[in-house]
Amino acid sequence: MSSETIKLTAKFKLKGTPEGLDALFSTYREIVNFLITYAFKNNITSFYRLKKETYKGLRKDYPKLPSHYLFTACQMATAIFKSYRKRRKRGKAKGRPVFKRKAIMLDDHLFRLNLEAGVMKLSSPSGRTQLEFYSAKYHKRFKDWKVGQAWLVRTPKGVFLNVVFSKEVEVKGPKTFVGVDLNENNVTLSLPNGEFVQIITHEREIRTGYYVKRRKIQKKIKAGRKRKGLLEKYGQRERNRLNDLYHKLANKIVELAERHGGIALEDLTEIRDSIKYSAGINGRLHRWSFRKLQSIIEYKAKLKGIKAVFVNPAYTSSLCPICGGKLSPNGHRVLKCSSCGFEADRDVVGSWNIRLRGLKMWGVPVPPESHPMKTGGWKVSRNDIHKLYASYG
């Protein structure tokens, strides 16, 4: 067994806005923008150098402000300037970087969180300020977790505290893997016993439906509060619907992996850089939040002590899992190997190759494969997906 760290962020909504908090937001934004400007003029990307050259001057200008606000402001300014430089190199950024949000980065010296009492104590220029927040059911799960960095964020809906919690878990070394091939409209799993599970998610239709709805709103309603409110409303509905789908999919995948071994996923980090299709397809693929689903699968697997690995995605859907030969289209999504005659759906091929690469990556002996393998799996519609998960507890 090996020890791994899980990090999750929880959101806490504060009850009201305490006196002096608005001034703290303004002061913090003023400091961050000063640091960004200094970093921009002197081309500084090092947190330590930025802190060293500006700390004494900031302490004189803000003598009552707790010093750790200056540390976190330096961290935030450095991160913003680095991001700006990357975007400028790609031709996606102009002018100078500016910090506009009402947000404050907090380290563990600036706040204390009491989940049972539903309060947090915040360091401020006038001393420790006690803030109450609304408790949610899922907050209880973080009772024994370690508290890390946090962000105090002001939005039109109120002030929120976003806290990063971490926990050390023991993860078993798997003897085999479940290969997971993520697609826009389905998730295909390759199980070690030769079976394949395909869950039809209809995610593409969900995203396209909300995209079309937003376009209609933009065309029919002039810019203003009404249009902005409607766009935010349907954007939130889309996120809620997809989040619900992702968590249910992740629960099912982790449940299967608990019975069969670890989880092998594709490393799709740079996929957007290689997307070069028509404008419509490019936009659709850029809206697909595959990494979010992968991260949910990963942390849920770790909580169960299951290993999740990421493999090279190159040619997973175009190489034969039997002999390694090049596959050719043989009608719609079916691929056929000209060398050994193997034939299967491209999603089946992809999940199979992902599982084999997971085995090789982890150093597990790869079993000799022979076809035909059992490819019958579940095909579940969006209407039936809730029944499927309910039947598995």
Secondary-structure element series = EHHHEEEEEEEEEHHEHHEEEEHEH
Q: Give the helix level as a range of percent.
A: 40-55%
Which strand order spans the largest sheet, edge to edge or round the barrel? 2-6-7-1-5-4-3
Uncertain spans: 370-393
Number of helices: 9
Oligomeric category? single chain
Main beta-sheet strand count, sense and barrel state:
7 strands, antiparallel
Strand-residue proportion? 15-25%
Radius of gyration: 25 Å
Q: Structurally, how many domains make up the residues? A: 2
How many beta-strand runs? 16
Structural class by SSE content: alpha+beta
Overall geometric form: globular
For the termini, the CA-CA separation is 27 Å
Concise structural overview:
With 393 residues, the protein is an alpha+beta fold.
Description:
By secondary structure, the chain is an alpha+beta fold. The protein has 2 domains: 2-168, no CATH class; 177-391, no CATH class. It contains 9 helices and 16 strands. Strands 2-6-7-1-5-4-3 form a 7-stranded antiparallel β-sheet. A 6-stranded mixed β-sheet has the order 12-11-8-9-10-16. The chain has a 3-stranded antiparallel β-sheet with strand order 13-14-15. Helix 2 (47-61) crosses helix 3, helix 4 packs antiparallel against helix 5 (225-260) and helix 5 packs across helix 7.
